[in-house]
Amino acid sequence: MQKIDHHWQRFTLKQKLSRFTVYLFFIVALVLSVRTVEIIPEFFFDAPEQMVDLFSRMWPIDFAFYPISVHDAMIETLNIATLGTLFTLIFSIPLALMNASNIVASPWAHWIARFFLVSSRSVNSLVWALLFVAIFGPGVLAGVLAIAFRSVGFVGKLLSEALEEIDMGSVEALRATGAPWGAVMLKGYWPQVKPAFFSIVLFRWDINVRESAVLGLVGAGGIGVVLNDSMNLFQWQQVAMSLLAIFAVVVAAEVVVVNIRKRLI
Predict the structure, then answer these.
(1) Using 50, 70 and 90 to split pLDDT, how confident is the model at 143?
(2) CATH code of the domain occupying 58-264
(3) Looking at residue 2, what DSSP letter applies?
(4) Are 82 and 205 in contact (CB under 8 A)?
(5) How far is Cα 206 from Cα 255, in angstroms, rounded to an integer?
(6) What DSSP character marks residue 185?
């Protein structure tokens, strides 16, 4: 009797070739990227020494600089993040409703909503800030609009996905009773999507606090203006104070968001 040798293999030949192709592509892309970047070896190997020198200039931290400039700038940064997040809801909620297939059935409405949602996400907040600084001039308004336009795609996309994942049973029951569209939205959709809505908005506000901290580097107000001025004047102890304040506010914002989510959700 002929003995049959069964040799188990984890991947088929096609899967092995596919994996090899992906690895080869990754290695080629990595090599080409390193060659394109053109890293200067002298600067690269000198970086640790320069970093130590920079940190030595930042110490001791100039805490007296906080009440002079940093405090008001941080309050301005929080205002930019908060107002930007609130303005985001004005645009993102209608776009989310248009993009949700279980609310609006028109393919044209979906494409229009997706166009604006993708356009918002594809442009970085600093680029939005540069645009609005050129239109409205430097200041808080440019920062608020930059945060708002950047956040529309994020909030609208996640909210539309949350709307599409709800249980349609209660919605269909309300429609069967002849309830108007507003009542269906408030009694059918909103109770189910409310936890996701607050989670998305709070998470985006947390991100906006971090992003608004750097918008001042391009003139859009906030702590970034103070940080940029200190760096231009080589006042590294003041730079350290600004960075410490940014870190403390970001950590505090994270704690606030987590506690609010626990109470609301």
Answers:
(1) confident
(2) 1.10.3720.10
(3) P
(4) yes
(5) 10
(6) I
pLDDT in tens, 243-256: 888 888 888 888 87
Scan for tokens 């590294």, then name that residue.
236
Q: Which residues contact 232 (CB under 8 A, 6 or more apart)?
A: none
* Residue boundaries of the structural domains of the chain: 58-264
Tokens of 23: 């690895």
- For the chain, count helices (H), then strands (E): 12, 0
Question: What are the tens digits of pLDDT across the range 219-241?
Answer: 777 787 788 888 888 788 888 88
- Read off the pLDDT of each residue in 49-65 and give the average, rounded to a whole number: 76
Is residue 133 helix, strand or coil? helix
Report, in angstroms and rounded to the nearest whole number, the Rg of the chain calculated over CA atoms: 26
The set of residues, in sequence order, having a beta carbon less than 8 Å from that of 199 and lying 6+ positions away, is: 261, 265
Q: Percentage of residues in the chain with pLDDT exceeding 90?
A: 0
Using a cut of 0.85, tell me whether the model's pTM lies above it: no
